[in-house]
Structure formats: C-alpha cells, structure tokens
C-alpha cells in the first residue's frame, strides 16, 4: 500500500505541468482505490494517515472548506450546518426523496409549478412515501425569504405533513468560486455558475442521504407524469438482483436521475472534489462509470419533462424538451422476478434478460428453428391478468416472430437453477409478430410458474423480442 502512495506522489510531481483533465483521471482512480482499501480494513493505520495527507495535499486545501478535507472517507457525511426555512425531516424513512435546488432567475420562475406538479401527479398513497426537499441556493436573502413565504402559503399542508422541507446553506460553507480554472474555454461567469451548481447539488445530496431508501434529482423547472412514483417502484422491483448506480427517467441534464440513498455521500464528496472541473451532468457520467456501471440504464417513456423557457444562467433561452415524455398515466407492467433462458443462438450481448427488462433494450437471436423457445420461470407461482409480447423494432421490422405460440406452465421440476415446467397450456398464436391477451386469470385456472415463447416454424429472418410485459392480479400464497 505504501508503494501505491509513492506512486500517487510520483504522478503529482511528474504530471503537474500536464493538462488538468489527465491529472483528474489519475487522481480519481487512485483515490477511489484508496477508499476501497481503507473501507475494507486492508490498510495499516500509518498508511491511512499517509493517504489522507497525500490526497489532501494534491487537492489544494485552500480551495476547499475545512469540513471536507478528509477525502479518503468518501462514505461519510459532510459536516455543515443547514438552515431550515420550512418543515423538518420526519423520523420515519420514506421510500423516495425528491431533491430540487433553485436559484434566483433573471427571467421566469418555475419552482412553484414544479412543486405543484410533484404533489398533484401523486396519489394519496404515493404521497405517504415521498419527501420533497427544496434547497434555496441563492445568496440573496430577500429572494429566499420571498420564496419561502410563497412556498409556505401554497403548500402549507404538505409542510405540516412532513412531505416538504425547504433548506438553505450559508455562503460561508462554499469554497472559492472566483478565479477558477477556465476549462473548455468557458467564460469566467459561466465557470462560476456551473461550479457553484455542483456545490449546491453536493450540499443537497448530503442533506438527503438518510431520509429515504432512494433519491431522485429534479431541476426546478420540471413537469411530472401521473403516478410517477408507482412507475419508479415497478422499475426498481424489476431490477432486483442486478447491479446499478443510476437509473434515468429522463434524457435531459440532471433531471430524473435516481440513486440508492447509500450512494449519496460518495456522490456529494465527488461533486465537491471536482466542482470546478466540468458541469454536473458530465461529472455524473464519470461517477457512474467509476462505480462500474458502464452503460446508461434509461427508462422509457420519460417520467419528467423540462418546462422552463429561460435558463437559470443569465436568463438565456432553453427550449430543450424530452420527446420521450408522457404526462398521462400509462400501464407499466409488473414483470415479477424470474429466471430467463433460451436455446436460440444469441447475437453478441443481446441476451434473454433484455427482453424482460423495463429499460429500452431487447433480445436478438439468429434465425430460429422449429422447437426453439424463450423461457421464463417465475421465482414464485403467480396469477397473471395480462400478457403482451412485441417482436421486431421500428428499424428492423423484418426481425419478427413469423410463426410462434405463447404457452404457460403450472408445476416446476429440478433444482433452483435448472427449474422448468414439464407440461404447458397453449394460450394462443402470434399475429404479425405480436401477442396480447387480457383476463388471463379467468382463462387459466392454475397459478402460473412458467411461460414460454415457442417457435412453431423455422424462419430465415433473425428474431428480435423487443419486450415481454406481464401484469399480475395477485401473488399466489404457495
């Protein structure tokens, strides 16, 4: 471990004249590896102290508040004082915290409409599971006081119920924001704006770390889809057993990015460490990659839409819209946990699991033959109300299932890994590459343990199974 520390010092001395970007990459990787060793207890006490001193020295402590000099402790909270402007956290953890950071705009103000959309688009049951935290991040105290009054008047019952909290961090806790590096040749005022925004988000993340199981970041000019929380819960459930750092429910900026709350302290430290290097949405990509989620996991249709016309930076026009957004409630499937398998020849990494995912991805196999199948074995027997299977895509309309049937099975045999059903009931045939059936629970009298797509005739075309959607009516007690 000492040799690793010497390597860090060596890189610092030899590369200090190179670009800040290359130095940043080396530093991030070294620090994260240091953190992993420290947290797992593999480093002697003397080495830990050397790491702390080295890491702090390299990051120029004069540019950072004293409260977060110990950069080796990525998982600890940042010790700053928050001003409660309205509401206080409840002792009971909620399912989801929704974070918003807002500053005074030269043109337009959409914060009240954003808060209104969050609450109006949520059912009474959903409201019990969310906490909304608004950070007023402007240093203009008169603006903050005015916004608190407006928020308190319009959303008093949500504040009393503990669903809405408004906070502020005093300017004294912020690092230096003037005279920063002008990466990407950005003008000085823009560098200051985006650097402060990184710190704003870091302080907000730090505050929200223990309020709920999950956290989603919105901007202060966003419209929500109906019952978005129910959709988020279904997506999270469908990803059980799989590793993820960030789930995305919008393709725009820092809107609709979902995290495990236990990752928030690390993300807060990360934004603070590199607050002056690049915009926050770029830093988020690096954070996700460093935690080993290499690909974007984005849900469609989007649940959040940018509605502002003027940016918070200088009041510039910002007409960005998410064309995948759907405001009205849509019927998202349940897709209960299951083991997926196929005997078809899979193309590259378009494996079976991708057809069953709630994310926009699909299974792709080479030309199937008679008797080939795509199988689903549920972890528990279930009652199914609706089934929908779509094959082919808009750009590959020929890669559909030409001749196939959908079948369900009752009882499984074999070990946990190799379980399968021995008998199946055929529900129907595919038509034009698709299958859809409702009221399944009235047509199938047993609890369903397996489901399979069976190829009934060989075809020359490849096969894409774009989506498999299953809606359940109740879970069997077996």
TrEMBL record:
<keyword id="KW-1133">Transmembrane helix</keyword>
<protein>
    <submittedName>
        <fullName>MGAT4 family member C</fullName>
    </submittedName>
</protein>
<dbReference type="GO" id="GO:0006487">
    <property type="term" value="P:protein N-linked glycosylation"/>
</dbReference>
<feature type="domain" description="MGAT4 conserved region">
    <location>
        <begin position="66"/>
        <end position="325"/>
    </location>
</feature>
<keyword id="KW-0812">Transmembrane</keyword>
<dbReference type="Pfam" id="PF04666">
    <property type="entry name" value="MGAT4_cons"/>
</dbReference>
<keyword id="KW-0808">Transferase</keyword>
<feature type="transmembrane region" description="Helical">
    <location>
        <begin position="20"/>
        <end position="38"/>
    </location>
</feature>
<feature type="domain" description="MGAT4 A/B/C C-terminal">
    <location>
        <begin position="338"/>
        <end position="466"/>
    </location>
</feature>
<keyword id="KW-0328">Glycosyltransferase</keyword>
<dbReference type="GO" id="GO:0008375">
    <property type="term" value="F:acetylglucosaminyltransferase activity"/>
</dbReference>
<dbReference type="InterPro" id="IPR006759">
    <property type="entry name" value="Glyco_transf_54"/>
</dbReference>
<comment type="pathway">
    <text>Protein modification; protein glycosylation.</text>
</comment>
<dbReference type="InterPro" id="IPR057279">
    <property type="entry name" value="MGAT4"/>
</dbReference>
<keyword id="KW-0472">Membrane</keyword>
<dbReference type="Pfam" id="PF23524">
    <property type="entry name" value="MGAT4A_C"/>
</dbReference>
<dbReference type="InterPro" id="IPR056576">
    <property type="entry name" value="MGAT4_A/B/C_C"/>
</dbReference>
């Amino acid at each position: 471990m000492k040799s690793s520390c010497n390597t860090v010092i060596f890189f610092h001395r030899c590369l200090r004249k190179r670009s800040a970007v290359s130095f940043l990459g080396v530093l991030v990787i070294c620090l994260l590896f240091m953190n992993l060793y420290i947290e797992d207890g593999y480093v002697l006490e003397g080495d830990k102290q050397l790491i702390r001193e080295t890491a702090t020295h390299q990051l120029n402590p004069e540019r950072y508040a004293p409260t977060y000099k110990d950069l080796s402790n990525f998982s600890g909270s940042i010790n700053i004082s928050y001003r409660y402007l309205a509401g206080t956290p409840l002792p009971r953890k909620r399912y989801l915290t929704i974070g918003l950071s807002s500053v005074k705009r030269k043109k337009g103000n959409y914060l009240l409409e954003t808060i209104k959309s969050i609450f109006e688009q949520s059912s009474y049951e959903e409201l019990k599971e969310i906490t909304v935290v608004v950070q007023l991040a402007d240093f203009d105290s008169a603006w903050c006081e005015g916004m608190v009054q407006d928020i308190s008047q319009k959303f008093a019952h949500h504040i009393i119920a503990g669903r809405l909290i408004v906070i502020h961090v005093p300017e004294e806790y912020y690092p230096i924001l003037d005279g920063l590096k002008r990466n990407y040749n950005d003008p000085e005022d823009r560098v200051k704006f985006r650097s402060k925004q990184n710190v704003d988000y870091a302080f907000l993340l730090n505050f929200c770390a223990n309020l709920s199981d999950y956290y989603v970041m919105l901007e202060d000019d966003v419209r929500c889809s109906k019952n978005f929380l129910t959709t988020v819960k279904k997506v999270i459930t469908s990803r059980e057993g799989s590793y993820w750092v960030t789930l995305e429910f919008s393709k725009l900026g820092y809107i609709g990015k979902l995290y495990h709350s236990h990752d928030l302290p690390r993300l807060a430290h990360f934004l603070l460490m590199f607050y002056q290097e690049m915009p926050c949405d770029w830093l988020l990509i690096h954070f996700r990659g460093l935690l080993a989620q290499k690909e974007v996991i984005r849900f469609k249709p989007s649940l959040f839409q940018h509605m502002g016309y003027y940016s918070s930076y200088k009041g510039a026009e910002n007409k960005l819209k998410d064309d995948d957004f759907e405001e009205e409630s849509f019927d998202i499937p349940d897709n209960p946990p299951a083991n997926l398998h196929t005997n078809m020849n899979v193309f590259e990494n378009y494996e079976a699991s991708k057809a069953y995912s709630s994310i926009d991805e699909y299974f792709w196999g080479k030309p199937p033959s008679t008797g080939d199948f795509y199988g689903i074995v549920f972890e528990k027997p279930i009652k199914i109300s609706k089934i929908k299977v779509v094959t082919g895509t808009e750009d590959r309309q020929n890669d559909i299932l030409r001749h196939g049937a959908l079948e369900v099975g009752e009882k499984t045999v074999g070990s946990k890994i190799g379980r399968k059903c021995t008998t199946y009931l055929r529900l129907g045939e595919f038509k034009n590459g698709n299958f859809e059936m409702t009221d399944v629970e009235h047509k199938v009298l047993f609890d369903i343990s397996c489901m399979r797509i069976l190829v009934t005739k060989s075809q020359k075309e490849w096969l894409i199974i774009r989506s498999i959607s299953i809606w359940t009516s109740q879970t069997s007690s077996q």
